[in-house]
Amino acid sequence: MKKSIVYSSAMCLFILAFHLLTPNKAAMTAIADAALAVKRFICRLCSAFPFSVAEITLIAALIAAVVFVCSSIAAVAKAKRRLHALLRRLAAAAAALLTLYFLLCILLNASYHAEGFADKSGIRPAPSGVDELYSTAKLFADKLALSGAVVDRDDAGLFNAALDRLLDESESVYQGAERLFPFLAAEDTRPKPLLLSRLMSRLNYTGFYFPFTGEANINADIPSCMIPVTAAHEMAHQRGVASEQEANFVAILACTESGLPDYEYSGWLLGYLNLSSALRRRGEALWRELWNALPANVRRDIRANDEYWAKYETKAAEVTEKIYDSFLKGNGQELGVESYGAVVDLLIAWHKEGGFG
Length: 357
Hints:
The protein is mostly helical. It is 68% helix and 3% strand. α2 (25-46) packs across α4 (82-113), α11 (244-256) crosses α16 (343-352) and α12 runs antiparallel to α13.
């Protein structure tokens, strides 16, 4: 037990030192860059497996935690010195949790305090008027209508592309974005579809980036029109883009610049959904004008996506959203989960600079 206490004390000191360094952007950037190189190496190793190593790791960790708790209860119940046995188990658990948290700080949290996409690109989100919002939303609506006419659709008129094809194409989706912003260049690995995708929907997740394996993981159960841009979003995290606002922007940029019809459509769609949502709050008549002008097949995709997520408005989803919201706010993202929708200001800023033309 003494070794566990000494080890845990050392971990606490390392964690404290990390938190004291978080205001130092240069230090955080150095840590994040070194961690990114490690994560990319691990991700290349994991790419040899067709399944998500992250998903298997999380399931195994959950099982191990349950086994540890059960075995600890049994061991304490049988022990002659129950208090001593309990303290030993608690010390071991504390050491494991502190190690996990310290690794999370290095592999993920540091990137929230490092130089971000806005710092490197010079694109700064700023408040905008209704006219600028409408202009950008109309551009996206027009592009969405054009791209929606060339993608594959099923008998019901919904976007329909094979998952394997979408994930295979993801490995070249960033080529256009990399030409615009060379610092985004990276060796891509195919995103992993999750076996427990339906559970992810119940928890309100379209995918996640796992810092311990560097993998981009995709909820394969969501409407297929959202899979390409979701893959691009998680791949943005693989490029060190930590902020959800910036990752959404980078994903939309990558998709719309990719030259891949499925990805272009998905990128224009996500951008339109965010912009139109903001426009509806500030000018419903303008929003309705753009909505009514959309082709019927595009409106069907949007309604299908809304209907899909309406099925999963559950207490579990609310709890996980609140937990993730707290995590994001604890790492400097003041908007929390709302930062996913705050991409609007970045889209407008890039449009004003002549982007998305």
